[in-house]
């Protein structure tokens, strides 16, 4: 995933804004450890997650799935989609978490249904265009935080979550 794309999606989040304040529960999940034999690129499982390609010698790949957790500074129980991998995090005035490994439509459905029971109120949902791709932004508030989940509906499996106190 390119840093430029992450920056662009983060910029869209900044434009959509954040407001409100509430709370959130744990995200649990596992990824499908099956592999697509004979392929050289990641396979997408029925749950929408990617599995690594098999090694060149054709030996089976064994993976162990551990639920992903948010980076330090973010609420430890903030929802992370099953199979999602927290691949980047920063704290430049706001908390930012990048999650990969989940198809956009799965991530969108997950956050639409997981934020409210986790104690985060969905304040607003916006759709915008970024380099020809549709980006859906879900603004939320909870546990003393306001934030945005941005999901690129294009060909990239990236979810950017930003939040700040207040």
Strand count, sense and barrel status of the largest sheet are:
6 strands, antiparallel
Low-confidence segments, given as residue ranges, are: 1-6, 11-40, 61-65
Number of helices: 2
What count of domains describes the coordinates? 1
Structural class: alpha+beta
Give the helix proportion (percent range): 10-25%
Counting DSSP E segments of at least 2 residues, the number of strands comes to: 8
- One letter per element, helices H and strands E, the order comes to HEEEEHEEEE
Radius of gyration: 16 Å
Mean pLDDT comes to 73
Described by the principal axes of the CA atoms, the overall outline is globular
Strand residue percentage = 25-35%
Across the major sheet, the strand order is 3-4-8-7-6-5
**What is the straight-line distance between the termini?**
30 Å
Signal peptide: 1-21
Biased composition (Low complexity): 24-50
Biased composition (Pro residues): 68-82
Protein name: Lipoprotein
Short description:
The chain has 166 residues and is α+β, with helices and mostly antiparallel strands. It contains two helices and eight strands. The protein starts with a helix and ends with a strand.
Walk me through this protein's architecture.
- The chain has 166 residues and is of the alpha+beta class.
- It has one domain.
- Helix content is 15%, strand content 32%.
- The chain is built from two helices and eight strands.
- It has a six-stranded antiparallel beta sheet with strand order 3-4-8-7-6-5, sandwiched between helices. A two-stranded antiparallel sheet has the order 1-2.
- β7 and β8 (158-165) form a beta hairpin.
- The chain is globular, with a radius of gyration of 16 Å.
- The two termini are 30 Å apart.
- 39% of the residues are buried.
- Mean pLDDT is 73; it is low at 1-6, 11-40 and 61-65.
